[in-house]
Design a protein that fits this description.
alpha+beta, about 230 residues, globular, 2 domains
Length: about 230
């Protein structure tokens, strides 16, 4: 065998080894464990709890929808959406939106409300990171938004759970999905959003506090099988 043939064989062996290594690496990091849950949010989240009762005719909310064929896409990443309006004995109303996605991937992931509101003509008056307290004494990392469309002023409190984390931004979400993927896990996710229509901006502080109490009571009153979807279980 001449020297050129030997060099060619070595190159072929090296290329083959690199391809094999790449295949093994791809297999190692390929997510294989799904965190998806099967409980129905609509059936398990209570229509009445504490001083709150669901209104039969809810108020119009910022749109969240699923595709009729059940196929997720970048525009429609959800598997189940629940939108309700609750009222308490004082006549105060809180709108609730729950949007669940069984799988989170870099190309198809849950939408952040501040982006959706802007896309539908709202401008942000306030956007603040907040720790949303729970009845257990813990707190969930979330955000407060004050959005104005010109003819509708809305205060919003929300969190997004992705797997066991609560990312507060797009980059945080991508890093959470990447971290889980490297561990062989495809995380699920949910948006938990409470919102209120305001008559003036000065009412925002009271609305945020009311929304926080509402969300804490909601989580506490939700059945265990659905509660695992609303909040991270460590």
């Amino acid at each position: 065998m001449n020297i050129w043939a030997m060099k060619g064989m070595r190159v072929s062996l090296l290329v083959g080894a690199l391809m094999a290594a790449s295949s093994v690496a791809a297999w190692v990091v390929q997510p294989r464990q799904l965190m998806a849950q099967t409980a129905s949010i609509d059936h398990n989240v209570p229509a009445q709890f504490g001083d709150w009762k669901q209104l039969k005719d809810g108020m119009p909310q910022m749109a969240l929808s699923v595709t009729p064929d059940g196929q997720r896409s970048e525009e429609q990443p959800y598997d189940e959406v629940v939108m309700r309006t609750y009222v308490n004995s004082k006549g105060e109303r809180v709108m609730l939106a729950l949007a669940y996605a069984r799988e989170q991937r870099q190309e198809v992931k849950i939408h952040r409300p501040e982006v959706c509101y802007r896309a539908q003509g709202y401008r942000p008056l306030e956007e603040v990171r907040s720790a949303l307290p729970q009845a257990s004494g813990s707190a969930i990392p979330g955000l407060r938004l004050l959005m104005d469309s010109g003819n509708r002023l809305e205060a919003v409190s929300y969190w997004i759970r992705v797997g066991h984390a609560y990312p507060r931004g797009g980059l945080d979400t991508r890093m959470t999905i990447l971290k889980d993927g490297l561990s062989g896990v495809v995380p699920d996710a949910i948006l938990v959003r409470a919102s209120s229509i305001l008559s003036k901006q000065d009412d925002a502080a009271g609305a945020y506090e009311r929304q926080e109490r509402f969300l804490a009571e909601l989580v506490q009153a939700t059945r265990p099988e659905a509660k695992r979807m609303l909040v991270a279980q460590n």
